[in-house]
Structure formats: structure tokens, C-alpha cells
Amino acid sequence: MPKTNHKMPLINQAIALYGGTFDPIHYGHLRPVEALSGLIGLKEVIWLPNNIPPHRPQPEASSEQRLEMVRLALRPFASFKVDTRELEKPTPSYTIETLRDFRQEIGDKQPLAFIIGQDSLLSINTWHQWESLLDVCHLLVCARPGYQTHFETPQMQTWLEQHQTYQQEDIHCLPAGKILLADTPLYNISATDIRARHKVGIDCHDLLPNRVEDYIRQQKLYQ
């Protein structure tokens, strides 16, 4: 009988989390995560707008307005959900605490990942209890194609090399512990620029979904 070359079935497709202030949400958030989700085959991406970010100024739009903008932006994506637990916290939201909450809810076996950008990876040793992140989840890094990721210190570079995987199956077959650098499109869009454009009345439909741009205008945000 001829041999077959079937891949091993995935134990359980990974669920991924993606956090941010989303002030406002834009294509620089949406399109890399959409590409990553398709590339890896994520079961679900849960978007986590936060209330009080630990490392940046307080957002200009209110929690309710930013939540509504995220909901409007995610409407076309069946596998994209929004979770409000960080918005409801009156204290700064630390990623490790949110991840532990999810891990407690989904159990020890379900693969769980956290999506970050390449810049965040290279500064991850400044995060609260960063050493515990890979005990709870995988890290999926939206990396610039062809860009060599390299930490400033040998210790951090060793940490990356010890945990890096080149096999997408690891993200689905293991509950946590791996880092995957994914070639995703890079969009030179920032929420800061969008807010600045709105302050001088420049249209931003090219930078974010029409529903979000229309909502910003209706609410007179960033003026």
C-alpha cells in the first residue's frame, strides 16, 4: 500500500489575544492580525481594549467610545471577538494578569497565544513579570518580512532562541511556551497620526474602516 503524507491533526486550534488602547483602531492593527490569523489558522482572535495602559498616556477617547470603534471594526470578521475585562478594570492592565485569567477559564490544555509587534518583542523584558509569559501562552510576533530580530543583550537573544519555533503546528499542539515570528505585512499607520489628521480636518478613510471613521466624525473625536 502506498504511503500517505497526511499531517498530524491539530489537537486544538489556538486562541489568540491581542491587546491595545485602540485610540482609534486602524488598518495597522487589523491587517497584520488578519494576515497572521490566516497564516497560522487561529481558531479565534480576542481583542482586548484596555482602560489604563501601564506604559503610555491615557487615551483621548473614552473607554465606551474605543470599545464601540473596535466593535465596528471587527464586524466583518467572524473569528474576531472583543473582550471587555481590561476596560472594566479601574487599575492598569498588565498582560500577564489577563493571560492568567484566560488560562484559568480555558484550562491547561487549550493552546493560548498573545499577539505582539516586533517592537514589543524587543522590549518585552520591561514588561511586568515578563519571565512568566511563556508559562501561560505562546507569543506570536508580527515581524517585518526580511528583518533580522536581534536583542541588545546576549541573555535576551538566548531566551528568544531557546523558545523560538519555526513550526506552526507547535502553536496548536502545545498549550504555551513558544515564540513564532510571522512574516506579516507592515503598515506605517499610527493612531497618533490619525488623531493629528483629525485635529486639522484631514480625512482618514484610507487608514481605518469607514464605519470607524464615520463614528469618529459623529462623536466629534480628536478635534
Number of extended strands? 6
Rg of Cα set: 18 Å
Strands in their spatial order, largest beta sheet: 3-2-1-4-5-6
Question: Considering DSSP H and I runs of 4 or more, what fraction of the residues is helical?
Answer: 25-40%
Write the layout of secondary structure elements.
Blueprint: E1 15-20, H1 27-40, E2 44-49, H2 63-74, E3 80-82, H3 95-106, E4 112-117, H4 118-122, H5 133-136, E5 138-143, H6 154-163, H7 168-173, E6 179-183, H8 191-199, H9 210-219
Describe the structure in your own words.
It is a single chain. The chain has 223 residues and is α/β, with parallel strands linked by helices. Helices cover 37% and strands 14% of the residues. It contains 9 helices and 6 strands. Strands 3-2-1-4-5-6 form a 6-stranded parallel β-sheet, with helices on both faces. Helix 2 links the parallel strand 2 (44-49) and strand 3 (80-82). It starts with 14 loop residues before the first strand and ends with a helix. This is Probable nicotinate-nucleotide adenylyltransferase. Residues 17-197 form the Cytidyltransferase-like domain. It holds the Pfam family CTP_transf_like. Catalyzes the reversible adenylation of nicotinate mononucleotide (NaMN) to nicotinic acid adenine dinucleotide (NaAD).
